[in-house]
Every structure is written in C-alpha cells, then in structure tokens.
Design goal:
The chain has about 170 residues and is mostly helical. It contains 6 helices and 3 strands. It has one domain. It has a 3-stranded antiparallel sheet with strand order 1-3-2. β2 (about 85-90) and β3 form a beta hairpin. α4 (about 100-115) crosses α5.
Amino acid sequence: MLDVLIASVRRAVPDGFVDIHPDIPWMSPDLSSEVIDLRRKYLDNPDIPDPPWLPEIFVDPSMELSEQEEWIGSEVKEGGTEALAWYVSFHQSKRWGIYIRGRGLLFVASYFKRRDGGNDVNASIKPAFDILLYHELFHFLTDITSAHMEMIYRQPVYNKYLAFMKSVPTAE
C-alpha cells in the first residue's frame, strides 16, 4: 500500500523527490554498519505475508555498554536521538526507512536497566526499541502527511520544508 502511495505521489509531483544517498552520521556509506532495518527485513519480504510489527529482540541478559562504548552518550548529548536512530524519507531516497543503531538500542536499554536496578537488559530492550521506533515513526507520519498535501496541491512540500529548515540559523 505504501508503495502505491509513493508511486502515485512521484507521478503527480515528480520534482518533489530526489534520490540522494541517505545522510546518516553514524552509518557507513554502504548502510551496513550496526543497523536494524525492519522495513527491509520484514516489510519488503514477500515470503512474510503478515510481518511482525514489533519482533522480539533478545540480547545477553547481563550485557552493558562497555567503557569503550560510553562515547555514544556524548554523541547523544551532541546530536540527540539522531545518534541512536534515524528516519530516511521516501522523498529523499529509495533507501528510505527507519534505521535503528544497534548500539543506540543498547544505550537506551542499558539506561533503563541502570535506572530500574534490573539484572536483565532484555526487560529493557522492548521499551528502548519502542521509544526509538515511535520517535522515528513520527518523522514517517510527517512524510506521509506531506505526501498527501503534495497530492492535493500538486507541488512539492516536504523537500521545500527541509530546505527552509536548513537555511534557518540555529541558536547556539
């Protein structure tokens, strides 16, 4: 269904789409490093008729971020949620989707584990995943809303908004 919507908008507003390489700061150029890409894994697989929306994720129960990996905390302070997960718009790339950084998921789960005084990080994996997924789903919903507006007005909305936001100086 999404593919039909995207194809329809591409036909109606072709200048509303570009196909640039996703700009994800923590990811290698081939998009292979430490990524859980559920859209590619589940939603694009014709062998899975009803993809699991939120699959179970398990890790070693005693797992914690090692001291060598604590640097991700400084990345989060500097870059916010984008250091943990990222949404690539279908207006921007054919490789669109929600990308969740493996270490980002572990970072949030470890935070919950420490906060709650638990012994098993698996109790924290699902809430950590939910937080990252729902944050990125909001970006996806914005993308879908823009696509609907583009179908109505027959002109680009999403990429114009991104260009405008990049041109506005930020307070530091």
